[in-house]
Amino acid sequence: MSVADVKKNAQDRMAKSIETLKADLAKVRTGRAHTGILDHVMVEYYGNPTPINQVANLTLVDARTIGVQPFEKKMAATIEKAIRDADLGLNPSSQGDQIRVPTPALTEERRKEMVKLCKSEAEDAKVAVRNIRRDANESLKKLVKDKAISEDDERRGSDEVQKLTDKAIVDIDKLVAEKEKEVLTV
């Protein structure tokens, strides 16, 4: 293992942390409807929990309504129940074989809660990035101890890992600022 390997590993893991944050932020509701809200809803399909997008077609009917078209008509009631039980504050209603999921307008108080949630997700991502930095620095110290690299190489490597960490944290802050702006926009 070399300094480049440690750096590459840290970079990959930091990128995964940022991707995870993006996925978590996509689940946070804004004032507008988007199908990503329902991504983590699981529907009981022949005894197995299945993601909703594998048993129904999700579309946007208008700015505040998501349309859910089950692939099998008999699944409509199960899908409706799964959406209601997902604790998203959504109340789906059936219209024939189509399910309409209106997204209620967010109150000012609810928007502030959503912003807090976004900041909490960001803090978790920053902690993950810092843990990756710590692991990388420990790997570099181990390489010095095993006489695989010099102390100068270790110092340069830890400086590069710190630069990666700083960049990742700036990216996290940008993502959260964008989502915060989106949530607070009425």
From TrEMBL:
<dbReference type="GO" id="GO:0002184">
    <property type="term" value="P:cytoplasmic translational termination"/>
</dbReference>
<dbReference type="InterPro" id="IPR036191">
    <property type="entry name" value="RRF_sf"/>
</dbReference>
<dbReference type="InterPro" id="IPR023584">
    <property type="entry name" value="Ribosome_recyc_fac_dom"/>
</dbReference>
<dbReference type="GO" id="GO:0005829">
    <property type="term" value="C:cytosol"/>
</dbReference>
<comment type="similarity">
    <text>Belongs to the RRF family.</text>
</comment>
<dbReference type="Pfam" id="PF01765">
    <property type="entry name" value="RRF"/>
</dbReference>
<dbReference type="InterPro" id="IPR002661">
    <property type="entry name" value="Ribosome_recyc_fac"/>
</dbReference>
<keyword id="KW-0963">Cytoplasm</keyword>
<keyword id="KW-0648">Protein biosynthesis</keyword>
<comment type="function">
    <text>Responsible for the release of ribosomes from messenger RNA at the termination of protein biosynthesis. May increase the efficiency of translation by recycling ribosomes from one round of translation to another.</text>
</comment>
<feature type="domain" description="Ribosome recycling factor">
    <location>
        <begin position="21"/>
        <end position="184"/>
    </location>
</feature>
<dbReference type="GO" id="GO:0043023">
    <property type="term" value="F:ribosomal large subunit binding"/>
</dbReference>
<protein>
    <recommendedName>
        <fullName>Ribosome-recycling factor</fullName>
    </recommendedName>
</protein>
